[in-house]
Amino acid sequence: MQTKRFIAVASLFLVFGSADAQTWQTNSGNMYLSSGNLGIGTSTPGFLFTVNTGLVTNTISPLGMFGYSGIASNRSILIEQIGNSSTANQYLFLNGGLGTSSTVATPTVTSSYASAFGFESNDNNLNIITAGAGTNVFPVRAMSFLPSGNVLIGKTTQINSGYILDVNGNERVNEVVVNTTGADYVFDTDRQLPSLKVLEAYVKDHHHLPGIASAAQMREEGVSLGESQTALLAKIEELTLYLIQQNKTLEEQQKRIDKLEKLLAEKN
User: What is the pTM of this model?
Assistant: First the structure.
């Protein structure tokens, strides 16, 4: 028994080297221990744990995997990359991994039993990608984060837009609160309300209310909810003032009518 233990220990020293050695490697030459740092694929690891793998165009390079049965497509956590020295995309998958038909910037996902979710990092942004179970399924880039900090949903590029959140598609929420200034200035006593004749002329010339964007501008630029609500509220308040004016006019006219009817009745 002691002889067997001695042989086992001696074998370990033959494979790994002396415990006091500064550089240690396996007999296959792909794992190194240097200055307390562990390297895989490099004999000069600069960090506590360093993995060095070559990048070849359109070749998938697995970097690490944690998963069931040691199979990448079977409920695993998988780290991969694909690309070359000038362009490379990195991936972190939960369930599944890159499909065999993947190319740079056009990945496919293979997941045997469950939907796959992952992070994709490229030269432009960080994407959250999703794909259903299957082989070489083209994923959906559901959300993207730009270097500026802006977030995109349903799109991966932001054109002529500086919005922090840019959504391409329908949105359903329980409640939206928009900051706005209100439009109480309409009731200021020193503000002149345009006459209905002036308003009529403006609408005839421009085909929209003053202070309200045209339909063409809305189609091109969209509508700011805060500004739009303020503008619409201002028009409602102006309309209220017009109604008050019209009511005063009607009341004066009714008084005159009542007076004339009384005079006619007295003559008859």
Answer: 0.69
